[in-house]
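#struct-pred
JK: can someone run the complex with ME8? inputs below
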Amino acid sequence: MSKSFYITTPIYYVNAEPHIGSAYTSVACDVMARFKRMDGYQVMFLSGTDEYGQKVEQAAAKNGMDPQAFTDKLSQKFRDVLAFMNVSNDDFIRTTEDRHKTACQALWKRLEESGNIYLGKYAGWYAMRDEAYYGVDELRDGPNGKKIAPSGAECEWVEEPSYFFKLSDWGDKLLKFYDENPDFIMPQSRRNEVISFVKSGMHDLSISRTALRWGVPVPDAPGHVMYVWLDALTNYLTALGFPDQNAEKFKTFWPADVHMVGKDIVRFHAVYWPAFLMAAGLQPPKRVYAHGWWTNEGQKISKSLGNVIDPYALVNTYGLDQTRYFLMREVPFGNDGDFSHDAMIRRTNSELANDLGNLAQRSLSMINKNCNATVPSNARMADTDHALLRDADNALQTARDLFERQAFSKALDAIWEVIGNANRYVDEQAPWGLKKTDPERMQAVLYTLAECLRRLALIIWPFMPDSMDKLLDQLNVPASNKTLAAVTAANCQLVPGTALPVPTGIFPRYAPAETAAQ
Ligand code: ME8
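RT: done, structure tokens with the ligand placed:
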């Protein structure tokens, strides 16, 4: 059996149009999934939409639509944006699907049969925006006597009959679990936050609602629908065929390797979810990675401020791979980050067009002109050449280690260090000068550059697959050799004499019309 890897995005609420926030999480998962596939893993990568709950019900009503028709429309937009961002998810789940209802009700039954559910009455605060219950000690007073959650969401007082999950029984078991699995919550800052929340004491959790109809019905309890987070979290099991634990996908992929989430929803994933799973006799996921939050030119992104960043506009302005690269490079993964057009232009022009684009363009053009448009001879390779190629090989190992910790921007730093070395190597070796004085040596230098580009293109591929395909095609690398093992495999190296196509630029400089004319 090959190695397996299961990664998930959060399932996105369909109360509003997709924006850069969901695209960010999805691209990060995509980069991870592509890296693992290229490294020989059998990968399951899941995304989808979270369609039940009060927030979505209200958004549908506001739009004058029936909730199912509304969610059909919005869910499609999330599916479209994934395809547009070149996200390679293997499945897309909608919580209104039948398979999901089956999974949720089966999980409920297990929780009930194991004695973890009881009927009571909820009287407390609820924030619809977060679809979350809050203790009074977590809230502050807002204007007009409103109670405000730490997230900034307004809370309302709710009193209704409700089923409860005995979360209070799970505090110590959760703490033990975190202790035994130090990498379960990453990064460390989030882990500390979760541990102190659990240490502060767990209250039982209301897991059904009677105030709304738009939800998964609780089995044998007319009038109750499941609390949307219990239903939503279950999606990670649904997609593997749960409740059939003998389903091939379930056996291969559970427990999940990484649930990627934003820091806003770490509590649901790192506290409630493992508690539900342990209570149902299922293994918790191996990791919850909570990344940081994007602001726009220093401001919180929100619909009411009108500063939502539209992924379509970004890609149409700067290019798809440029946008994917920016999102993964600009911010150390896990930290908060600020989007600015200046930063976007700087990265597009200096790191993509100049550092990598020029390296490829000048190397391949020289090969095209001076080596008969074929892979040059490597007969006269010297120590410096081998050293550069070793740098590229080392970058692969570094990237592998960093990917184990989802440190995407650090992996790019390591790769760009090699690109810097390669650019310095071109200047030092000056192959244009060798053309007359030592043509064989020129061939070896150009071979080294082509081979270095091949190795780098493979390592960069998960971040920018279209552009790197273009580069690999210009090196005539067959599809079967587009693996990470091929980076260092002797029999995958470029073969002198192989015909190469005419090179074309990969990363255009960003030059808006008004500045291009200057
Ligand atoms: O919370 N910066 O869905 P949601 C970074 N349905 N990431 C952002 C972001 C920003 N400004 N805005 C959104 C839900 N995100 C639930 C999840 S999972 C079982 C249920 C990303 O539509 C980030 O990943 O509110 C965040 O966690 C997610 O979108 C929230 O999406």
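RT: quick notes.
Residues 10-13, 21-22, 24-25, 50, 232-233, 235, 261-262, 264-265, 293-294, 301 surround ME8 (CB under 6 Å).
The chain has a mean pLDDT of 96.
JK: thanks, will look after standup
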